[in-house]
Amino acid sequence: MANTIFGKILRGEIPCHKVYEDDLVLAFLDVGPLSRGHTLVIPREAAETLDALSDESAAAIGRVLPRLCRAVKKVTGCADYNVLQNNGSLAHQAVFHVHFHIIPRPDTGQGLGVRWQPLGAFDHADAAELARSIAAAV
Which one in 60, 105, 134, 138 has a CA-CA gap of 20 to 30 Å to 111? Predict the structure, then answer.
């Protein structure tokens, strides 16, 4: 198990406010929440980025993530929320253990601020080649 804060939580060295756990997944409240109910969902597997995560752990997170979103919505009363997952330092990953944030968006303006910056004109010829290359890599 990696020596990240999440590894320490998984080993029981640091306490957390658990909201869900099974053999492959743990979910708990973020101690630095962006809004009330901000929840972290992590695999028990010590993978730094999503592409390094096993299919089994990825499927387990995919199975429980919608259920956790419904629970956070119900308890916080927020109809809107963000699900955020970062991979690598340039993508703003701060803890190098795969994790998903469920961030409720109350009307108060609390939560995640996102600024979308498209690259510009979409090149269909380049996109066709890129799609073929990615599909072949799968």
Answer: 60
Residue type, 118: P
pLDDT along the chain (138 residues), means of 10: 90 97 98 95 97 98 98 96 97 97 90 81 91 94
- In this prediction, residue 119 carries a pLDDT of 85
- Identify the DSSP state of 102: E
Q: Are 2 and 97 contacting, i.e. CB atoms less than 8 angstroms apart?
A: yes
| Cα angle: 111, vertex 115, 117; to 5 degrees | 160
Distance (Å, whole) CA 111 – CA 97: 22
Catalytic pick among 38, 97, 99, 101: 99
Q: What is the DSSP string of 1-65?
A: --SSHHHHHHTTSS---EEEE-SSEEEEE-SS-SSTT-EEEEESS--SSGGGS-HHHHHHHHHHH
Verify whether residue 99 is a known catalytic residue: yes
**Is the CATH number of domain 5-113 1.10.3720.10?**
no
Q: What is the pTM of this model?
A: 0.91
